[in-house]
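Weekly modeling sync, notes
Attendees: S.R. (lead), two postdocs, one rotation student

Agenda item 3: backlog of single-chain predictions. S.R. asked that every request posted to the team notebook include the full sequence so nobody has to chase files. The rotation student volunteered to paste the first one in as an example of the format we agreed on. Action items at the bottom.

Example entry:
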Amino acid sequence: MKTRSIERIIAPPAPHMVGNGFRVHNFIPGSGVTMRRMSPFILLDYNAPIAFSPSETPRGVGVHPHKGFETVTIAYKGRVAHHDSSGAGGVIGEGEVQWMTAASGVLHKEYHEESFSRAGGDFHVVQLWVNLPAKDKKSAPKYQAITKDAMPRHALANGLGQVEVIAGEYAGTKGGASTFTPLDLLNVRAKAGAEVALHRPANWHTALLVIEGQVEVNGNAVPTDHFVLMANDGTDFTVKATTDAVVLVMSGEPIEEPIAAYGPFVMNTHDEIQEAMDEFARGRFGVLED
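Predicted structure, as returned to the notebook:
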């Protein structure tokens, strides 16, 4: 076993709006972190905490297509409603996760849930895009909803917190979501003083996002809202909470295939991107009203 070093600690880049409901810092791709560098994680939009005023008309993102990958939405504060062209939909509450496999193509929309919108309040959300290998890009779309009550958890020693296992595995606790390729997605919820040891294969791309509080990664201080890109030079690293903290840990085996990306489509070739655009124009992803 060898310690995995830190490649870079990245401050949150300037935010931008996605629709009128999500104010996000884009860590992947961006700040020198490409889709290939963090494959299978090909996008990370981080809606750091922001207070939205009450609104009778829910803010959000209108109807848009997805094809060739999966979206993972994690709600830390606030509530997100979503619907798609297959008729599926639901609400992502605080502490919950929605894992959507777009694969062969869907239309999708997501908004602040109506009661949250009317009341207003703090909103704090992560959205990840997870790439699919070529053989799975034409799979049928599906959803996996991980509710707060159903979230698998591993208790830390001495009552100093817990690790929520969204996907993958931690210390024998299996994740709530099934995945197409090997990956781990964890929420480390640690009280001040807790130290969490993590072990991942050296070739897996690994990063952390400090959601709340402050931590030390291998002894290096990392403030709130900062992203830690780990080098691929070892297997083991530690996260120590210097205050009560929440840390999102993502680690996965890279998909060693070409990436062709254009807006909401992620395929392997430019011809496949054109095909996806043509399918969308012809209504092949179904119908969904704004």
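Discussion: group reviewed the output briefly. The chain has a mean pLDDT of 97.
Action items: rotation student to repeat for the remaining queue; S.R. to check formatting next week.
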